[in-house]
Amino acid sequence: MSRDGISRRKFVTAGGAALVSGLAGCSGGEASDGATTDTMSSADTVKIGVLEDQSGNFALVGDPKHKASMLAIQEINNDGGIDGKEIEPVTRDPQSDNQRYQELTREFINEEEVDALWAGYSSATREAIRPIINRNEQLYFYTTQYEGGVCDETTFAMGPTARQQLGTVLPYLVEEYGPEIYTIAADYNFGQLSADWVKVLANENDAEVLDEEFIPLSESSFGSVINNIQDADPDFVMSMLVGANHTSFYEQKASAGLDIPIGTSTAMAQGYEHERLDAPAMANIYAGVNYMQEVPTTSNTEDGGFVDRYFEKYPDAPYLNEEAETNYFSTYMYKEAVEQAGTLEQPEVVEALESGISLGTERAPEAPEGEEVTLDGATHHVDHHMWVLRADEEHNVEAVENRKVPEQFLSETVGCDLREESEQTQYTPVDYYEEAE
Amino acid sequence: MVNGLNLAFQFLDSFAFVVLAAAGLAIIFGIMGVINLAHGEFILVGAYATTVSATSLGLPLPLAMAAGVLVTALFGVVVERVIISGFVPNWIGQRTVGRDLVEPLYDRLADSMVATFGLSLIMVQGARIRFGNSIDQIATPFGNVAYGEFSYSTYRLVLAGVSVALLVVVYYVFTRTDFGTRVRATMADEQTARALGVDTDRTYMLTFGIGSGLAGLTGALFAPVLSMQPTLGSQFLVEAFVAVVVGGPSVVLGTALSGGVLGAVNATVTNLTDSTTFGRIALLLTAILALRFLPDGITGFVERVRTRREEGE
């Protein structure tokens, strides 16, 4: 028994030492003692916290985000770091678990003292950690496409909003196929608010939403949904389905012989259904997004471009998705801001970000989605280059439309200006549009 | 007329889903009394084995499905030997320290629950590490049937047919064959069965293997229609347990009946409200009511009515 105890203690000590030296290796310090490495690193390095799901429900979409952050950090470090300081990434796997996100966010802010934090895939996660972010006034980058409306002093929502995404694809489909729309959406805040945006945009484009259906995230049988769509007989469907179970819809509608055009803000660009599913399940589906691996910009597809660099670093990665690009370029925007501010102090960096950082200048690489991507200082959102990408019968993806689309809801409708007034609010379309009610 | 067809197809769909979800569990939980929380992951094994056989090995779909069933059945036997009955660890124990290392998990409801929950976590993460966050999916065969402005996937109708055939076969095996009699004898009273010459150890192993194989069949059949991700098993778990518990002590008949009742409620309410949310609420509400007023499940209730009538006569 006592022998057992000793060997266990020995094991723990050895493991701990290995862990400490492993960390020291990461931060580039030569000291074998963890404590000294820590004090050294806070002075000489930029600490970036990255919390993206590598297991659990959202691993499929979260893993590319993590990888793209690491790619940007590696590139910046190889190129001399931020203002000569090396970036030290701090990462952990939050396992798609919001409670774990909250614990890790606290740990990253209070113990790791990260200079900036990238965290979270779903809107539910963002709302779970935003109170902690606010309490600590932590500089936070949320890099997923989302429903929009977050006006928050230290949060930068870098992904496109529902209005930007749906506002790109919906008018295109109205023009192509006609004004009658049927909406199917995941039954939680993102899906509900996205469906509201479909109604707002339908109104702006002289179209009409015939009916809308909200589907629980646990549902994977779509027989009745398919019958309802056939019954309503719309010109096209808007789909904001989310997650693994909902992916089954596309295969099921194809095998049921439903071949209606579908506009979407969620399919293909995030979970690359056009590569995972057998053709023609995704035929005639139009994604309104800022980025997919297939986006035909030079900086994306040329030799040594974004796609090349990503798969050189991660040869076994399955797909480079929409959110990965957002993680990537936002890391460069942070670099710009720190160099402009000349300090890592977060209030100064926020101020620099609010001055309106723009990529596509000579100092930074272009954002892969387009020639120029601008951060709007007033709303902490990004004016994206948006694309409509269509999958054909063989699941080849082609770009059918693209243009620069600014964030509109916060800047024009709500009037959020974080340079003038500090806020921590999320605005919803219901409060501003009658048709969203 | 046309909406009647919609309702009928949706009922068949719902019925097939409930019955197939519950098929393997009816045996492992219903007959053997092991609360198998890894049931969904047994389905995952079947689905992945089928898909990988079809995409990587290029097997035609029926053969790939057979491979899926076989792999899951073998996997089930391994799980039974190593974890549930503890045969393997005890064999090792006898040879090294001269005593058994673990107690079998049979008739230990709560313990089997914890053990299989752990197994389920290991399997989901294991699948993620080995196969990544998703694997490529195979297409659904058979096309569709069109009627008026509506259409329905033929394959989903085939599933309903298969689920009925499956119930018949399982019912036959467990009530009309020697093997079935031995299984029921073993589960009812192991000591006596053993005294009468039944190799109970072997019976446990085979029964668990069959239950696993049925879960594998469910995975194989749903492989072409569901998104292939490591968490795909979780969507079956609730329906499976609800169906078996609502079914009651006569497991196979119970599963058929609860599949019928729950499928009908789900399809009807979904159709009336045009909402899958309410369909699901109605399904679970029916389960709650059934267990509140029929604590022995549907077949327990039928049994009670029958005894009462016989006593009355």
What key attributes describe this structure?
heterodimer; A: 437 residues; alpha/beta; Rossmann fold; 43% helix; 19% strand; disordered N terminus; B: 313 residues; mainly alpha; ABC transporter involved in vitamin B12 uptake, BtuC; two-stranded antiparallel ribbon; 13 helices; 2 strands; globular
Compact description:
The complex is a heterodimer of chains A (437) and B (313). Chain A is α/β, with parallel strands linked by helices.
Question: How does this structure look, described?
Answer:
By secondary structure, chain A is of the alpha/beta class. Among the domains of chain A are: 32 residues; 146 residues, Response regulator (Rossmann fold). Chain A has 15 helices and 16 strands. In chain A, the strands form three sheets. In chain A, strands 7, 8, 9, 10, 11, 12, 13, 14 and 15 form a nine-stranded mixed beta sheet that branches. A five-stranded parallel beta sheet of chain A has the order 2-1-3-4-6, with helices on both faces. In chain A, strand 14 and strand 15 form a beta hairpin. In chain A, helix 1 packs parallel to helix 2, helix 3 packs parallel to helix 13 and helix 4 packs parallel to helix 5. Chain A starts with a helix and ends in an 11-residue tail after the last strand. Chain B is mainly alpha-helical and 313 residues long. The longest helix of chain B has 30 residues. Chain B has one domain: Orthogonal Bundle (ABC transporter involved in vitamin B12 uptake, BtuC). Chain B has 13 helices and two strands. In chain B, a hairpin with a 2-residue loop joins strand 1 and strand 2. The radius of gyration of chain B is 20 Å and the shape is globular. Helices cover 76% and strands 3% of the residues of chain B. Chain B has a two-stranded antiparallel ribbon. Chains A and B meet through helix 3, strand 8, helix 8 and helix 9 of A and helix 1, strand 2, helix 6, helix 11 and helix 12 of B.
Structural class of chain B: mainly alpha
Q: What is the CATH architecture term of one domain in chain A?
A: 3-Layer(aba) Sandwich
> Mean pLDDT score of chain B, rounded?
87
Largest sheet of chain B: 2 strands, antiparallel
Distance between the termini of chain A: 69 Å
